[in-house]
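Treating backbone geometry as a discrete language has practical consequences that deserve illustration. No coordinates are needed to read the tokens, only the vocabulary itself. For completeness, the protein is quoted in full, as a sequence line and a line of structure tokens:
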Amino acid sequence: MTFDFSGKRVLVAGGSRGIGLAVAQGFARAGADVAICARSQGPLDAAQAELAGFGHKAIAASCDLGDGPAVLRWVEDAAQALGGVDVLVNNASGFGATDTEEGWAAGLSVDVMATVRASRVAIPHLRASKGSIVNVSSISGFRPSTRTPAYAAVKALLISYTSSQAAMLAKDGVRVNAVAPGSIEFPGGSWEKRRLAGEPVYANILASIPFGRLGTPEEVADVALFLASPLARWVTGQTIIVDGGQMLG
């Protein structure tokens, strides 16, 4: 699928690897200026160099998305550097899985509050550009999970918040949607690590996907770009599942 985001200004939170990087690459390939953030400087530098190779502005900043003031600074600095915001992609996750204080704190601080905070700063810019927000949830948000209860709960919260954001911002011409990926595998990611370690959960998940494989970050990114594009100009408040039929099992 070919998109044209020439001259658009895109912010991707958690854009140095996996789905976030694929999303940033997709926008850069389509002509956008892109700003990303992440915690680890090495992957962040590599991602910035790759994005700059598409010939458009690419800026990167180290940011702990669990740190509220840091999130606010990142969005405002990125908006100033790019001259505004047309698209905000809230992708980062704290991967807080377990039903513990630590698990809940990780998910609430990054998956939820980073989305709330980044949106808060970006919204005035998005109102001016009639732009859009794309939140990254998960199919875990649609069903109970005994393995990752805190993760499932915060992803369900994002699905709900996406609808609420869309309702609040429609009057301003700002659209808000989400993608809900299934199990996605990429180099260095958690599913690759499970596969290499021979963990039974990998085989169980693989068996649950009708297409017989895990998804790729690019397959999620294409849907995110669609939701941010004029092709989806009458779509708002929706969460699109991208899972190769994993939810059908």
